[in-house]
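Duplicate of earlier report; (rape) hypothetical protein input re-posted below.
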Amino acid sequence: GLYVNATSVEVIHYLWLGILCFCLPFELNMIQTLLFSILTLGFCILLFAM
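Output:
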């Protein structure tokens, strides 16, 4: 239940950080970054809702 969700969110968080660190040198658009953050947050909320 909760432990699995917390672990999943942790994995997603580190994946997001990795993608962000990878994309930053390529000057990723601020709007794209914001949209990706919102999508990631929404996915985390869905995980906790399940």
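The first helix runs from residue 2 to 23.

Merging into the original ticket.
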